[in-house]
Amino acid sequence: MYDMKPLEEKWQKYRNKKLRPWFVAVGVLMIFSILMAVFWENLNTQHPSKSAQLPSPVLVEEKNVSQEANTSKIKKPALLDAALDELQINERIKEKSETKNENPTDILVDVPILEDEEGTDEQAPAERKKIHLDILETTNASAYQDVEKRFLVSRDIEDALFLANSYYDKGNYKKAEYWSIQANKIDSEMEESFLIFVKSKIKLGYKNEGISILKSYIERRNSKEAKKVLQQVQGGIF
Amino acid sequence: MKSRYTAAKNAFVDSVDVEDYIEIESSMAAYAQLEHSLEKPLKMILLFGRPGTGKSILLNRAQQKLKHNKEIHYFDTPAINEKEFFSKLFKVITQKDLPRNTEINFPVLVDYCKSLRGKREMIVLLDEAQMYGPEVMEKIRLLSDSRAIKFVVSLHKTEDEDLIAKEHFQSRIWEVIELKNATPQDQAVYIHKKLLKKNLFEIANSILEKNMKLIHKFSEGNYRECNKLMFTIFEICEYYDENEPNKINYAELPQKIIEMAALKLGYIHV
Description:
The complex is a heterodimer. Chain A is mostly helical. In chain A, 80% of the residues lie in helices and 0% in strands. Chain A has a domain at 155-238: Tetratricopeptide repeat domain (Serine Threonine Protein Phosphatase 5, Tetratricopeptide repeat), CATH 1.25.40. Chain A contains eleven helices and no strands. Chain B is an alpha/beta fold. Chain B has two domains: 4-15 and 183-265; 25-179, Rossmann fold (3-Layer(aba) Sandwich), CATH 3.40.50.300. Chain B has a five-stranded parallel beta sheet with strand order 2-3-4-1-5, with helices on both faces. In chain B, strand 3 (122-126), helix 6 (134-144) and strand 4 form a beta-alpha-beta unit. In chain B, helix 1 runs antiparallel to helix 11, helix 10 (209-219) packs across helix 11 (223-243) and helix 11 (223-243) packs across helix 12 (255-265).
């Protein structure tokens, strides 16, 4: 019997040599798999970032659109690469600007949109004052409704006084009476809202009641304007 | 205590003993063809195949089986010279030993053979015939022409030897029997039958189909190489059984041991 140890060692070498290509193949396969996994991971992570970046120009453009619509000027979008998209955006801008130019006098429609889009609380009071100036010029009924709605939220005495005056001027004494009461609730010392209330009451046919209210007001405040209105009512001029 | 693998190892000792002859499909077909050819009035029969394909054992078996019915003689090893060969042949033909200090007069021998035509029919089985020189082969050809002696010439099949055979016997060979290497199935049957013949059922069953395929791969279906490989395999098994039994699986012949045997025999290299 020959020595088995050298034969075993020889067999071990043979086995290693035989298995070497398999180890190499498995190694290559593993490296390839890892590379593929990394590649796919990168691919997946790159796509969302791209898609996240893409909407931003659109948003910027949307903002541009709203700003440009205010000024009724058409500008080309700066950040879209594709010519087709650029054209589509231009078309949208044109449409928006055109629809806004249809009723140039209907400013009240534009005002809430501006507030919504800009959405800054600091700018809101300034915008409201602007509105009053604009509203004095408007004849659109829906404009009053917008101010009424806004008053419910803001409880701004200016809005209530504006509505009372406007409705009184238009001859809608019932609404003038209501809005003058609303203004008086906010500031009971304000004479203007009181006088609109009394005048509206008298116009609605409550002449004696109006005179009685005026007299008691004059007794308390000694108001010149109230005395003047009382004289006009009693003299039959009012 | 004697290892169970000792008997298995000895079952594969390479021999041409007819007792070790294993009947498998291919060898049975070759034997049937040889027997059938011997019945024909042929001058010469060429039996050829690569070494280890079972030519010798086939001739031996034919001699053992037919010796009672026919005058058949088996020359297992080639004579070292022409004189020795004809001395042996003289004894076959005359049934007497060649007297000392005498030489055969070949033309007289041919005439004597011719005189025996129709009276006697001798069959001479010449194994390893490639060892005979061209002059001897020419004389064999002349003797076969007498029709009293039928020669079965066994040759190794190589490209050159095949050509030599054709040149020598082209006009006289009437039958050619080719022995081929065993198929995997034939070889598996051969191994199993070898072991079962020695009542080694467990060991025979421990050699699985995959083991058989590997053995066939290493031995290339050659019976002589198969015997060598199986002998070495069981020799290694015997060593482990006696010295390190934890390294051997008795239920299944380990592939490691087959490969170790193949390494030992040089079928594979590191």
